[in-house]
């Protein structure tokens, strides 16, 4: 994929870096794989706002993604690569030989017409989903399960990937996108390759209106609030606001919030890079 810089014909286009969508091959999604999305506006079931700065946004449908890749041994053909408004990565529509259609996270380099497989016996090629016990060491992977049969939960965002580093007994040692090295059961699945749309983090919206289209309302800085509204508020003139912390008083910038006795800590061999 690639980005394009627009000519500054308007103020909003002066700094805008837009996606070219050159890898997208279809403009309309598969209707049978759509589900409605109800907007909450940041409110809970009683109508109380529990998440600030959420509201508005363009109407959209949810694309049902096959994170489990459970059609083992059945060959599928990539029919389209599509844009998904619910995630940063591209998605691919796969037609399987038994007639079923499913969406999957599109890895970088996946082309229309390409064959994909999952399960035992699948080749370690881009787009194929295999058990960690069958993937060659050093392979770049994404869409990784944390528990067998759970479905992919890690390395699903645009441009992310992990690397299979080693195997120890019944565990695989995987280096995560955060830099963390952890152990995952060999019976968990992962997909070969890196996630598509790697230049997503380089995009620049250019104007506040595009954030509103995405359902993000303007965010008020804590230092301009009053002391009753935020721990960093108040003061005469333009006060700096004191130590950075959340509205509930939890410090940011280095304060560890992970529970030190968490059961899964024993599977983490090396912590994520700061």
* Large-scale geometry: globular
CATH class category label of the domain at 20-40 and 57-201: Mainly Beta
Write the CATH fold name of the domain at 20-40 and 57-201.
SH3 type barrels
Main pleated sheet: 7 strands, antiparallel
Strand order of the largest sheet: 9-16-10-13-14-15-17
CATH architecture of the domain at 20-40 and 57-201: Roll
Number of helices: 1
Poorly predicted sequence stretches spanning 5 or more consecutive residues: none
Terminus-to-terminus distance? 29 Å
Gyration radius from CA atoms, angstroms: 22 Å
The ordered H/E elements are EEEEEEEEEEEEEEEEHE
* Structural class by SSE content: mainly beta
Structure at a glance:
The protein has 274 residues and is mostly beta strands.
Q: How does this structure look, described?
A:
It is globular, with a radius of gyration of 22 Å. The chain has a domain at 20-40 and 57-201: SH3 type barrels, CATH 2.30.30. It is mainly β and 274 residues long. The chain is built from one helix and 17 strands. Strands 9-16-10-13-14-15-17 form a seven-stranded antiparallel beta sheet, with no helix packed on it. It has a four-stranded antiparallel beta sheet with strand order 7-6-5-8, with no helix packed on it. Strand 5 and strand 6 (91-96) form a beta hairpin. The mean pLDDT is 96.
């Amino acid at each position: 994929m690639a980005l394009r810089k627009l000519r500054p014909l308007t103020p909003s286009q002066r700094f805008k870096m837009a996606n070219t969508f050159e890898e997208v091959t279809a403009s309309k999604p598969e209707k049978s794989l759509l589900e409605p999305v109800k907007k909450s506006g940041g409110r809970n079931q009683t109508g109380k706002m529990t998440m600030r700065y959420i509201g508005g946004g363009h109407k959209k449908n949810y694309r049902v993604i096959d994170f489990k890749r459970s059609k083992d041994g059945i060959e599928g053909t990539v029919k389209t690569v599509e844009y998904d408004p619910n995630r940063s990565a591209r998605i691919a529509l796969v037609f399987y030989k038994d007639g079923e259609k499913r969406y999957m996270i599109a890895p970088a380099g996946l082309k229309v017409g390409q064959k994909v497989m999952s399960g035992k016996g699948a080749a370690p090629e881009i787009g194929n989903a295999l058990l960690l016990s069958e993937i060659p060491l050093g392979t770049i992977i994404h869409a990784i399960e944390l528990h067998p049969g759970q479905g992919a939960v890690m390395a699903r965002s645009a441009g992310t990937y992990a690397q299979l580093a080693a195997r120890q007994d019944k565990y695989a040692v995987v280096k995560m996108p955060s830099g963390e090295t952890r152990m995952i059961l060999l019976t968990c699945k992962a997909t070969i390759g890196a996630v598509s749309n790697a230049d997503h983090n380089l995009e620049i919206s250019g104007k506040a209106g595009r954030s509103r289209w995405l359902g993000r309302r303007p965010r008020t800085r804590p230092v301009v609030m009053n002391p009753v509204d935020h721990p960093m508020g108040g003061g005469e003139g333009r006060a700096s606001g004191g130590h950075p912390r959340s509205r509930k008083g939890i410090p940011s910038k280095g304060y560890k919030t992970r529970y030190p006795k968490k059961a899964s800590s024993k599977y983490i061999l090396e912590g994520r890079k700061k």
